[in-house]
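cron nightly-structures :: item 1 of 1
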Amino acid sequence: MIQIGEYNTLEILRDTEPGLFLGDADNNEVLLPNRYVPEHFEIGDNLEVFVYLDNEERIIATTDQPYIVKGEFAMLRCNAVTNFGAFLDFGLVKELFCPFKEQAFPMKKGGWYLVHCYMDDITERLVASSKTNRFLDNKELTVAEFDKVDIIVSHPSDLGLNVIINNKHSGLIYKDNIFQEISVGDKLKGIVKKIRPGNKLDISLGDIGYRNIEPNADKIMQELEYNSGFIPLNDKSNPEDIKNRLEMSKKTFKKAVGTLYKKKLIEIKDDGIYLKTQD
């Protein structure tokens, strides 16, 4: 079956005046208009296309790549607000509609909003919703502690930043685990740091425990090499100074420094850390 709102790999069936007709194994067909027809093709070739409803509600295929597909989250720009709702730019000729009832806050023209794309059961059209939490579920987790995950920054809270995990779950990055500039909509890699009661997920942007000693030790070594073998930091340094220079906590810094010291790669002095001259 041809899936609306998704990428489909379809066979070129015939070349007609309005474009190419593509089909699947179940004899379903869709038109790829001339503007999207590749320069070179053969009948019987397979094409990967995105399928959606055009402005006249006709099923259509395109080789353009939308900014979001069904079931995903993305930051989109609002192109217009009408009496019916907001219309968002999602990279295609047709805009993505977001009804007023699906807006967490009233959208404004020119604003950027994190939205979820889904199929409206009544109209069978792709629509957007900025009420992203209702598309997330932590009842049955598909992740475990220490798993590497894909995250999208959702919205800030008093505790830190709420994130979307693998397009399925919600989680939180605590303030004291954030050492870089992050904005809503940013797509990052993370680690499941802890699963708390109620399947609440704590996320870290770096490896945790013994897992993060080596990567951060390498980061310190790179900083030393870049700065002629010296950085003015040690275990007595202000945590803010460490965070600003190395984007890591003082606890992580001390672990990494300890690793380098044991390997006899550095010297620790009152004024900072020196790269040890190798014999």
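cron nightly-structures :: done
The helical segments are 213-226, 239-246, 250-262.
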